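Revision sheet: structure tokens.
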Amino acid sequence: MVRAVLATLGGPDGIKAFVKKGDVVAVKPNAGFSQPPEIGATTHPDVVAEVVRLCFAAGAKEVRVFDNPIEQFEKCFAASGIRRAALENGARILQPSKDDFREVSVPGAVALKPSWPFFVRPFEGADKVIGLSVLKDHNLAVATMAMKNWYGCLGGPRNQLHQDIHGSIADLAALVQPTLVILDATRILMRSGPTGGNVSDCASANTLVAGTDAVAVDAFAVGLFREMDGNDRRHTEAACRYLALSRDRKIGTTDWKSLNPSLDRKNIPLAGG
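Predicted:
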């Protein structure tokens, strides 16, 4: 599925359209919680493993896998399967320390102001940045998708940002504009997010969404979320206010069809954005 979605997006070269020989690639999965893959709270390790393999196959010199989890780092990376997926395929895992954060400022910030500590070490010397997010329910943000994934780079008292969760997500989208994002919707945590807890809370969607515009990817994905559970009135584009905020700040477009008008959700066995 990873190879197929990248071929849809990047053409016959797949990931080679984005990753070149000698590149240092920073890969950010969602490893925020100490949960097994089937719970749907973290990026599936098979997706992480394949992206790492493909980066090296494209000639990458180094692949860095990183996050700043809510819970204890080692437990999160081990339980999610991401530690094994990264190491067995030759990637480096970057665990944050206090010296790895720097105060960053976001032009036009509404929440991350005047500055905020950010996990900068994985980005230093990196040629390409790939976001590997997971599609899941979120009790405050409505849905966690590609843009919300960068919350894992924040340090400091980031729980304070929950007072303006939508503004902070839009700020992050302005700050981090990755080379590529791949959204893992192989199984969707439909409720009890973001931590999850029961396999019964997940629905199988067997879908990956890839794009270079994270706003468009999220706009597509929230529609997929809604289609998976038509009775849930929470998961809508309007409820995910960070989408409109990001669009209005010209960070990206919510009109995903304008980027590839041949796409139609009803006719895509493996969705690309």
